[in-house]
Amino acid sequence: MLTVSVLEKTYNVARHSSIKAFTYILTEELKGLDVEIIEVTFNKDKCAEITIDGEDELVAKNLLIKNYGTQRSIGNIQEGDEIYGRCKDVGGVKFGFFIDAGITSTTEKIDALYPLFELREQLAKGNKTPLMEIMRAYGITENLPLFFEITKRRVIGSKVWVRLTEKSLNWIAKPAREKKDALIVCGTTRRAIKNALITSNHTEDIEEVERIGLLEYRLICKRGTRAEGIIPEIGYLLGRAKIGAQVYSRVKELLE
Fold it and tell me: Would you list the DSSP string of 141-192?
């Protein structure tokens, strides 16, 4: 028996439902392995701790860390490593935004930086586009979980720089490639989203509700539907959830 700490998070509004939902998700992901999920809890940092038991528990542990990340010391990461992290302080600075990827030093937690020049290179064809225009085009919002590649680290001074992996880059650009808008919703349940869509009469405008993380979803709009027009009509129904709009027309402008 062993316990794995991962970076999948809950929110205060959904701690109880998060345990039930994450247990179900993990059960599906670990099908085929000789392992039993004994318990799922969330620690003081709201990160999941999963206790598992069985012949394949080490295989399961490695799979969980690959899918959901885990806390790591800055001394144990290297340039080129892939890490799982969440967007943090989105819009708080002008030179990029930070990533909470569970990186620590001996004395503190370290947020990695996704710098503006990398954002421009990956998401704006290298153009000198203002940061907020990139964020508003792609709907990047607080707590959005993505996969990043470490491009540079500095142990002395505790600094880490990242960029999106090809997997996440393809994911974030997919709606625009299909000429569709999408909504990114962080901090609520699938049930709450579906209820909000029903109440606001927008169910028919959404083609797919796609799970990103435990309490993070992307709503793919039908072609021709304006994602930004839906936000004020469902936002108040979703409480403190953070909502961003991926807008095809804006992404198209960035890439011209």
Answer: -TT-EEEEEEEEEETTTTEEEEEE-HHHHHHHHHHHHTT--EEEEESS-HHH
Strand 72-73 to 96-104 pairing: parallel
Integer distance in angstroms from the first to the last C-alpha of the chain?
Answer: 54
Distance (Å, whole) CA 10 – CA 19 = 9
- Cβ 139 vs Cβ 244: under 8 Å: yes
The alpha carbon torsion through 247, 249, 252, 256 (nearest 10 deg) reads -140
In this prediction the pTM is 0.91
Q: Tell how far CA 136 is from the center of its chain.
A: 16
Give the integer Cα–Cα distance in Å for 172 and 42. Answer: 28
Distance, CA of 189 to CA of 210 (rounded, Å): 12
* H helices, E strands: number in the chain: 8, 13
32 class by beta-carbon count within 10 Å (0-12 exposed, 13-18 middle, 19+ buried): exposed
Torsion sign across C-alpha atoms 210, 43, 31, 169: positive
| pLDDT tens for each residue of 145-187 | 999 999 999 988 889 999 999 999 999 999 999 999 999 999 9
Cα 97 from Cα 140, distance rounded (Å): 10
